[in-house]
From TrEMBL, chain A:
Family that this chain belongs to: Belongs to the bacterial solute-binding protein 3 family.
Name assigned to this protein: Transporter substrate-binding domain-containing protein
Pfam families per record: SBP_bac_3 (PF00497)
Biological process according to GO: amino acid transport
Organism: Parasutterella muris
Length: 340, 385
């Protein structure tokens, strides 16, 4: 009787302790586990895609690697967790991933009520429509009555509803929960139209047996600034995530590439360049990192322009133009706050 | 101390009750601590992430469209109405699948019990194939077949001008005033069933009179349907622009789910029917046949009533399984309750409330099935009167 009572008491006490324990900060957890857990897309060519050997490439993948290089010193110390649209915010809220870099649109509802905060924009996009050429449609305004494939849990779902409502048109929605199912249904002909961000449309077209049979309609029906997000409540980790993105963008603005970063570190006299290459003031200390955080980002991963070129540039199947995703000094709207 | 007699007994009882009370109190306190700590953990995490709670979101506008729904729905309507549409979609596919799965299951079960080797083999093949492959794989396969192999809506397969089969589903002609015609046929079918069964039961057994009455009811319903069409005109499906307008339609998602659920559950129901019939002692067959009854008479007068007693409770759980399995609709794109819940969670982040709604709805649906089947069970186990 006594033994059972003491055992029961210990079990109850352990529950109390478990409830009281706090999660700790994300930076501590990342440093002690030695790996950054990054939530990415299951298959988004150009943003996060794994090849047949399991190697991940993409714009969001490069961001995660930059984060690992800045915090842990090694860009390879990343664990990629593929997530589909309905799971992504739950995984972030629950703490299963440290950062969500999954070409996710930044909007008010997500920033304010889903338990996430966005660190910035790494690709300014818009939503469009992909149709087969044999439909003979030149503009989105001719799509009254069409069947549209859209993915559940994306910002595309409400945007297309708003667009059709404001243009007094009707449509039939066929909604799936994975990208593969949605694109598969479109490519098999179940739906006549596929709608999602323009960058995703370009990626979907590359998966068709004959990409030339499809055309992206000219209308851009919404703003979709895609960017990484972290969990709300940890300001330190939020600052690190935000400034890693800003450092990548500013490095391109200042002309620092992975090829010339070593040389510039030794020979440059520009204080901004010296700071970014780790030869000037220590900005890392203020973030909780060491002095070479931005140097490692450019050396091991590259600046924003190099990442864009490698994943979305003219030599890739997507071949997306820089467009507004160019530096403000070059006609685009990428304007990173100064790293100083 | 006196260990025997009434006094000792009462003393022992008192101390036993006291110990029992203490143990139950400790257990209750432990449960309260566990649940309390869960609740506290959840609410403090929700506050830290700034996620709202409460069911107020049900009156906000949904912002998404549904592929199909029995009630009218547009993106400006509320989440509550979206959930109602999803619930009706779930009930629609579950009810239809239960009926077809039972019919197919009984046929396959009887096939397995027959003496012809080919029928027996086909029955066994059906059961083993559909029972052993996971339902989600079957659904994806059927959906793939429908969307890949059927022609585009611009080149649909015609059945005269009455029906079109294409990737956009099965479109069929209906009388112009669809709801009135459907209500009229349903009412006439039910009345015919009741009337015919009363007439047939005077000459035949319960089973045969029910089957004959069902046949008459279907004929009556069909006759009223066609009459409505002829009198008021038909709404025939035609290709206009992209979409096929007119008539009524069964979407490929609904078809895939219906066929998948029917085939999968029919294999389980076939086994239940077979178990019920095999459980009737062999002596019953021998006695009935030795009395000069034919195979048919034996089955309907002697075997089937006894087999039903054993078969009805497992049938109830198969129906509940079917209802729960219909939540796989989200992988084929059918807008059922879970699919709409998914969309809602992603638009407003309130996963907890939505999942509670979904769980309660499924619980209520299955309780209704359970109550109905218990009544059926009471009917068949009434015994000799």
């Amino acid at each position: 009787m006594k033994k059972t009572l003491t055992a029961a008491g210990l079990v109850a006490a352990s529950f109390a302790f478990a409830a009281a324990a706090s999660a700790g900060t994300v930076l501590d957890k990342v440093k002690s586990s030695g790996v950054v857990v990054c939530g990415v897309n299951t298959a988004a060519p150009g943003f996060s895609n794994a090849d047949s050997q399991g190697n991940w490439t993409g714009l969001d993948v490069d961001y995660c690697r930059a984060l690992a290089a800045a915090v842990l010193g090694d860009a390879t110390k990343v664990k990629f967790v593929p997530l589909n649209s309905p799971q992504r915010f739950s995984a972030l809220q629950a703490g299963e991933i440290d950062v969500l870099a999954r070409n996710t649109t930044w909007n008010l509802t997500r920033d304010a009520s889903l338990g996430a905060v966005f660190v910035g924009t790494n690709y300014y996009d818009g939503q469009g429509f992909l149709v087969p050429k044999k439909l003979n449609v030149k503009s989105a305004k001719q799509l009254n009555g069409a069947t549209i494939c859209v993915q559940s849990g994306t910002s595309s779902e409400p945007s297309v509803a708003d667009y059709f409502k404001s243009n007094n048109m009707k449509y039939k929605a066929v909604v799936f929960d994975t990208t593969e199912a949605t694109q598969g249904a479109f490519l098999s002909g179940r739906c006549q139209v596929y709608t999602t961000d323009m960058s995703d449309l370009a990626g979907a077209r590359t998966k068709a047996a004959n990409p030339d049979d499809y055309i992206i309609l000219p209308e851009v029906i919404s703003k979709e600034p895609l960017g990484p997000a972290v969990r709300r409540g940890d300001n330190e980790w939020f600052q690190i995530a935000r400034w890693v993105l800003n450092a990548m963008i500013e490095a391109e603005e200042k002309g620092i590439t992975s090829a010339n970063v070593d040389e510039l570190r030794k020979t440059s006299t520009d204080p901004n360049v010296k700071r970014l290459t780790g030869a000037g003031d220590d900005t890392g200390k203020l973030l909780g990192l060491d002095k070479d955080w931005s140097y490692r980002i450019v050396k091991q991963v590259g600046n924003y322009g190099e990442s864009f070129e490698k994943n979305l540039g003219p030599k890739t199947p997507l071949a997306l133009p820089r467009g507004i995703n160019n530096q403000w000094t070059n006609g685009g709207i990428l304007y990173a706050p100064p790293v100083r | 101390m006196n260990r025997h007699g009434d006094e000792a007994f009462h003393r022992r009882e008192k101390s036993r009750k006291k110990k029992a009370f203490i143990w139950q109190f400790i257990l209750l306190a432990a449960l309260l601590v566990i649940f309390g700590s869960f609740a506290f953990n959840i609410s403090s995490n929700l506050v830290a992430r700034n996620i709202h709670s409460g069911f107020g979101f049900l009156s906000e506008s949904a912002g998404f469209e549904l592929g199909e729904s029995l009630i009218s729905f547009s993106s400006t309507e509320s989440y509550g109405r979206a959930f109602l549409a999803g619930l009706l979609n779930t009930i629609r596919v579950a009810a239809v699948s239960i009926i077809t799965a039972t019919v197919l299951g009984i046929i396959v079960g009887l096939m397995r019990l027959s003496k012809h080797p080919l029928l027996k083999f086909l029955g066994a093949a059906h059961v083993e194939f559909y029972r052993n492959i996971p339902l989600i794989v079957q659904l994806l396969l059927i959906y793939l077949l429908i969307t890949e192999l059927l022609p585009d809506s611009t080149e649909a397969l015609h059945f005269g001008s009455w029906a079109l089969l294409s990737k956009a589903g099965l479109q069929y002609a209906v009388p112009t005033d669809f709801h009135a015609a459907a209500a009229a046929s349903a009412v006439s079918a039910i009345l015919c069933f009741i009337f015919c069964r009363r007439t047939f039961i005077k000459t035949y057994t319960g089973l045969i009179s029910s089957t004959l009455a069902l046949g008459c009811a279907l004929l009556a319903g069909g006759a009223v349907w066609f009459a409505a069409g002829i009198i008021f005109g038909w709404s025939k499906p035609e290709l206009q622009g992209f979409a096929i307008e007119g008539g009524s339609s069964l979407s490929p998602e609904f078809l895939a789910l219906w066929i998948g659920l029917t085939l999968f559950t029919s294999s389980a129901i076939a086994e239940i029917i077979r178990a019920g019939v095999l459980a009737v002692p062999k002596g019953q067959w021998n006695a009935a046949l030795s009395l000069g009854m034919t195979q048919m008479e034996t089955v309907s007068y002697v075997i089937f009533p006894q087999a039903l007693k054993l078969a009805v409770p497992p049938l109830a759980s198969q129906y509940m399984n079917l209802t729960k399995n219909s939540s796989l609709a989200v992988v084929v794109g059918y807008p059922d309750l879970v699919s709409i819940g998914n969309s809602t969670i992603n638009l407003n982040g309130q996963a907890l409330e939505v999942i509670v709604i979904i769980m309660s709805v499924y619980l209520v649906l299955n309780l209704i099935i359970s109550v109905l089947m218990n009544k059926v069970n009471a009917l068949v186990t009434r015994g000799a009167r």
